[in-house]
Design goal:
This protein is mostly helical. It is about 60% helix and about 0% strand. It folds into 2 domains: about 70 residues; about 110 residues, Endonuclease III, domain 1 (Orthogonal Bundle). The longest helix has 17 residues. The radius of gyration is 18 Å and the shape is globular. The protein starts with 5 loop residues before the first helix and ends in a 21-residue tail after the last helix. It binds a DNA duplex through helix 2, helix 3, helix 6, helix 9 and helix 12.
Length: about 220
DNA sequence: ACCCAGGGTCATA
DNA sequence: TATGACCATGGG
């Protein structure tokens, strides 16, 4: 049976893709860089994350071993532009410790998606969204990433109330769009792109590609 | 001078 | 379970 809201979600996807084009996510060269970016971008503009990652690359420490060998304060200094640098330095090292103890990326890639998700959520500093970023964009698993934009746009389209639990929203989108890695990948990226232009906390509805679907009344 | 950004943890009730 | 405090840089 088709999930409720599926036609609207599909229609919205088509309109967003038509307007903005393919987004080419995730912006990272390796799965490890994707994972690092997923932590660094927590509640932070991506432009700031790019500076931090550039610092890590320039210092030659964009690897598990190198990041674990650094003193937390030294790592924090490198990622300073990304904000919350003390917190994120600890989180990055926790993630690296997990990767090493789990036997590396190859061992992780052999795990089933639910098991891998549970393992990621057990890492300090990895919550639902960061875990799903990693699952979808680093490991290519069919998991829909829910962020504040997903809730806001979903609510303005009348597909969700917006204040449901993370898992509820995730299941709603996944059921409506089918287990399709390419669609999940592109859709989340398009929602982020769209939110930057139109679907702000204070919306800019002039020229919005979703105007015909939107039930939001500014 | 504000508001916002590709969240998560921890203490408290 | 559900809030609130806290973390911090940088662009509009």
């Amino acid at each position: 049976m088709t999930a409720p809201g599926a036609p609207r979600l599909r229609a919205a996807f088509d309109l967003l893709l038509d307007r903005y084009g393919p987004q080419g996510w995730w912006p990272g060269e390796t799965p490890f860089e994707v994972m690092v970016g997923a932590v660094l971008t927590q509640n932070t503009a991506w432009s700031n994350v790019e500076r931090a990652i550039a610092n890590l690359k320039r210092a030659g420490v964009l690897s598990c071993g190198a990041m674990l060998a650094l003193a937390p304060e030294a790592l924090a200094a490198l990622i300073r532009p990304a904000g919350y640098f003390n917190v994120k330095a600890v989180r990055l090292q926790a993630l690296c410790r997990f990767l090493v103890e789990a036997g590396g990326e190859a061992a992780l890639a052999a795990r089933d998606t639910p098991g891998l998700r549970t393992a990621l959520l057990a890492v300090h500093g990895v919550g639902p969204e960061t875990a799903d970023d990693i699952l979808l964009y680093a490991f290519g698993r069919p998991v829909f990433v829910v962020d504040a934009y997903t809730r806001r746009i979903g609510a303005r389209l009348g597909l969700v109330a917006g204040d449901e639990g993370y898992e509820i929203i995730r299941r709603t989108f996944e059921a409506a769009l089918g287990p399709d890695v390419a669609v999940f990948n592109e859709y989340h990226a398009l929602l982020v792109r769209h939110a930057k232009v139109h679907c702000r906390p204070r919306p800019r509805c002039e020229g919005c590609p979703l105007a015909t679907l939107c039930s939001f009344d500014p």
